Amino acid sequence: MTEESRLTDVITARKLSKRFGDKRVLEGLDLVVPRGGFVLVTGPNGSGKTTLLRLCAGLFTPTDGELEVEAPRGAIGFLAHEPLVYNELTALENLDLYGRLYRLPERRERAGAMLERFGLWRARNERAGTFSRGMLQRLALCRTLLHDPDLLLLDEPFDGLDVDGAELLHTELAERSSVTALVATHDPEALAARSTARLALA
Amino acid sequence: MNAYAGDVAALARKDLLLEVRSRDTLPAMLLFVVSALTIFHFALPSGSSERAETGLLWIAIVFTALLGLTRAFAAEREGGVLDGLVLAPCDRSAIWLGKTIGLTVFLVLAELVALPAFALFFHPLSWDLVAAVALADIGIASIGTLLAAIAAASRARELLLPLLFLPLAIPVVIGGVGASIASDPGSFLAFLILYDGVFAILSWASFEYVITE
Question: What are the residues of chain A with a beta carbon less than 8 Å away from any beta carbon of chain B?
């Protein structure tokens, strides 16, 4: 990697492979995501979209190849299939805990503002375990965006969202136009206007 | 350092709050330890030695701890929360320390019921026994939290955790029983302190490697 690309590229993968036992999930993938790039990752079930995002988040280690992610751990916003929140904590308590671990100033106010933006303010004192699928996805998006990440790794961000929720997400992404993003989706048309590149996994 | 202590406190407080709300772990530990001591009371022939009775107490403590350990990462597994904690920029050992403190509190609370029950069923408690139990709690929670994290990542977690934990609990039983019955318990208590120190440092240092793939 040259010094110039180190400054401009956030994710660089060379011949990236990931296997689980005998099962090959990713094989020899080359990928460059420049700073500010918005890359859609498409492909059928089992093609390795989620695995690629988890590799970029540092939750998996590559079996072979190289992967460079030029973003510190605290600058990554990772939206997974699961909401990554405690069922027995309220929406506000969950965000407050993450705010504490991310060392956010005025974390309580920030958490409240985020819940308000995603239409969860009235449910702020309800336990996450009582939320519907769509509300959980909204809460997961609040958690993902709470610390204003520089790199977004989003796995099916529209999953479970109703029309209003999808509109809110579009607005949030539009407001973060300088953020680099790698988005795994089965519905690339929903983000076609925002995307700068597509990666189709087979 | 202050930030680290704050993270640990927030994580430990969260575990205690989760338990207050869900009541998943502590009631089961209390019921188990009291039931086990009741069964031992009726199973042990009358006139049995204090040594045998003390040994049974330590069996009850180790298996009660195992019960708590099986639930140690249940809340994190349910919502995939461990990934969220791992991605946070805090020191990952804070996750271990917060969880260890929470588990130690559960063990102490279980023993606040178990030790009087033991005194009621068998023989009076000595201060050496109480000190040994307190030291054992720290060691059990330290190594147990690390092993529970290893087991949580496995599909066979219910099988794996006892297989990993029980061999490493043998020194705790040796030290605990020794401190409870020996005429000079000092060396056994020192052994438990050494065990706590060694396994706390090992667990603290290695937790990051355990929770990342």
Answer: 57-61, 72-74, 76, 78, 80-89, 93, 97-98, 100-103, 127-128, 143
